[in-house]
């Protein structure tokens, strides 16, 4: 595994829109970048067995999940010609309609940025041990299964 420092990924609660806008603005000074790709995961108000999801409560073994995020990010750098890759995931309660995952990749060219962004999202969903508890409007809950 890389000797690079493990970056902070977790955000308590929803990822605020100003964090996303600020991240984009921060990259304006990096003029070697020609393309960005962004994925925003949003909590859906699914209806399951006639009960509507009001929020998802995310939990994780933070140290283990942080290492897995780091491995996935480093793998993306080895597979794609990236300039930057940023990943943020929520912990705690995120209401329906709010952002819970923010993946932001940058490269000199669009194909690397978009392919890497898709790669990161799929790897995160498949490999990172984060657990989501769907909280229904009637105050009952169930554990979420990733699809």
Walkthrough of the structure:
GO terms for molecular function: molybdopterin synthase activity. The chain is an alpha+beta fold. The protein has a single domain, classed as Molybdopterin biosynthesis MoaE subunit (Aldehyde Oxidoreductase, domain 3, Alpha-Beta Complex). 31% of the residues lie in helices and 38% in strands. It contains three helices and eight strands. The protein has helices spanning 17-26, 62-79, 110-127; strands spanning 10-12, 35-42, 47-48, 51-60, 82-95, 99-107, 130-136, 141-143. Strands 1, 2, 3, 4, 5, 6, 7 and 8 form an eight-stranded mixed beta sheet that branches. Strand 5 and strand 6 (99-107) form a beta hairpin. It is globular, with a radius of gyration of 16 Å.
- Which CATH C-level class is it? Alpha Beta
CATH topology: Aldehyde Oxidoreductase, domain 3
What is the H-and-E element order? Answer: EHEEEHEEHEE
Instruction: Identify the CATH homologous superfamily.
Output: Molybdopterin biosynthesis MoaE subunit
Query: Could you tell me the number of beta strands?
Result: 8
Task: Report the total helices.
Answer: 3
Helicity level = 25-40%
| Quaternary state of the chains | single chain
Gyration radius from CA atoms, angstroms: 16 Å
**CATH architectural grouping:** Alpha-Beta Complex
Form type: globular
- How many domains? The number is 1
Specify the biggest β-sheet.
8 strands, mixed
Strand content: 35-45%
Mean pLDDT: 95
Low confidence ranges:
none
Q: Distance N terminus to C terminus?
A: 28 Å
Coarse structural class: alpha+beta
């Amino acid at each position: 595994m890389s000797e690079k420092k493990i970056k902070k990924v977790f955000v308590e609660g929803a990822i605020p829109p100003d964090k996303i806008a600020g991240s984009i603005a921060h990259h304006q000074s990096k003029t070697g970048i020609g393309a960005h790709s962004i994925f925003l995961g949003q909590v859906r108000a699914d209806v399951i067995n006639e009960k509507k999801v009001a929020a998802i409560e995310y939990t994780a073994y933070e140290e283990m999940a942080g290492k897995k995020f780091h491995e996935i990010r480093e793998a993306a750098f080895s597979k794609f010609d990236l300039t930057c890759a940023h990943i943020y995931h929520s912990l705690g309660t995120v209401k329906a309609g709010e952002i819970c995952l923010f993946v932001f990749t940058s490269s000199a060219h669009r194909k690397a940025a978009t392919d890497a962004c898709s790669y990161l999202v799929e790897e995160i969903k498949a490999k990172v041990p984060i657990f989501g508890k769907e909280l229904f409007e009637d105050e009952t809950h169930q554990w979420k299964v990733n699809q």
